[in-house]
Specification:
- By secondary structure, this protein is of the alpha/beta class.
- It has a domain of 57 residues.
- It contains two helices and five strands, in the order βαβαβββ.
- A three-stranded parallel β-sheet has the order 2-1-3, with helices on both faces. Strands 4-5 form a two-stranded antiparallel ribbon.
- The longest helix is centred in the first third of the chain and has 13 residues.
Length: 104
């Protein structure tokens, strides 16, 4: 049985590319798409009623920073590596040291 996912497409968003990106993610992860929700309250309600197990967002800034409860694994941090593409097209991409962001 595949997990069910709801796609959060925030109110006011007008870029259909985000829905396409989220649908592609669901397909790659073999999630059954439950539907599209427009608010975090609706997403939480689906999780609380156990209708979905996953909420998919297309952009990191769609994530509610105040969402709770949250699950974190001690000792595992995601590292984001920034690449510089300045200069000529043949210039090798320079890798930068990852930065850690902390929530207070």
């Amino acid at each position: 049985m595949s997990e069910k996912a709801a796609i959060l497409y925030p109110e006011g968003e007008v870029n259909e590319l985000y829905i396409a990106r989220a649908l592609n993610h669901c397909q790659e992860c073999k999630y059954a798409v439950y539907g599209i929700v427009r608010t975090w309250e609706a997403a939480f309600d689906l999780i609380a009623r156990r209708e979905v197990q996953v909420i998919v967002v297309a952009r990191r800034d769609h994530i509610d920073p105040n969402w709770a409860p949250r699950v974190e694994v001690a000792g595992e941090f995601s590292r984001i590596v920034a690449a510089s593409t300045r200069g000529s097209a043949n210039q090798r991409i320079r890798q930068r040291r990852a930065r850690f962001l902390r929530r207070d």
